[in-house]
UniProtKB/TrEMBL annotation:
Keyword Repeat: yes
InterPro entries for the chain: WD40/YVTN_repeat-like_dom_sf, WD40_repeat_CS, WD40_repeat_dom_sf, WD40_rpt, WSB_SOCS-box_domain
PANTHER family in UniProt: WD REPEAT AND SOCS BOX-CONTAINING PROTEIN 1 (PTHR15622:SF12), WD40 REPEAT PROTEIN (PTHR15622)
SMART domains: WD40
Native source species: Bubo bubo (Eurasian eagle-owl)
Domain of life: Eukaryota
GO biological process: protein polyubiquitination
Name of the protein in its database record: WD repeat and SOCS box containing 1
Residue windows of the WD repeats: 91-120, 121-163
């Protein structure tokens, strides 16, 4: 709940701290709403809070953006790849990532706090229509594409692709995890819902 991301479908994604969005809303809201919520907002007047204050980022993804998803890490959740001892990225407890699905089939992973590109995932051959992170903090990402597949990526294993899920006869439009991250459902152009158990 710390950031809001949006894109108009062009190359640009805007990342805005949620507190800034809330403050802008309050400026245009009624006095009663402003007074009620302002008592709950933390004060950020000290020098140390100004240094760590979330800031807005504008990200150029390089191609038309079709999908966005936030993911955060839980350090206790290890990579599902047990044979690799070294990773390029060590995800800390306060890590917040943004995945962007692009027109060219690529998925770019960004550090929300810095706006820097971390990973460039390339395996889909068509538009990436939807993205979803497992809600258990494992940084497992699933992408749905017009190439009729879903792909499962392990971001804690440097973004390696774990699985390709097939079963849709047409484009895949959307995907979602169950709350315990054990089941993945997807829907495609053929109006069929496909469920998969992820182990």
């Amino acid at each position: 709940g710390s950031y809001f991301a949006w894109s108009q479908g062009h190359r640009i994604v805007k990342l805005v701290p949620w507190s800034q969005c809330l403050n802008n809303f309050l400026l245009h809201g009624t006095k009663n709403v402003a007074n009620a919520i302002s008592t709950r907002l933390p004060r950020q007047n000290s020098d140390s809070s100004q240094k760590n204050k979330p800031c807005e980022h504008i990200i150029d993804c390089g191609d038309i953006v079709w999908s966005l998803a936030f993911g955060s890490s839980v350090p206790e959740k290890q990579s599902r790849c047990v044979n690799i001892e070294w990773h390029r990225f060590k995800f800390g407890q306060d890590q917040l990532l943004l995945a962007t699905g692009l027109n060219n089939g690529r998925i770019k992973i960004w550090d929300v706090y810095t706006g820097k590109l971390l990973l460039n995932l390339m395996d889909h051959t068509e538009v990436v229509r939807d993205l979803t992170f497992a809600p258990d903090g494992s940084l497992i990402l699933v992408s749905a594409s017009r190439d009729k597949t879903l792909r499962v990526w392990d971001l804690k294993d440097d973004g390696n692709m774990m699985k390709v899920l097939r079963g849709h006869q047409n484009w895949v439009y959307g995907c979602a995890f169950s709350p315990d991250s054990s089941i993945l459902c997807s829907v495609g152009a053929s109006k069929a819902v496909v469920a998969a158990i992820l182990v």
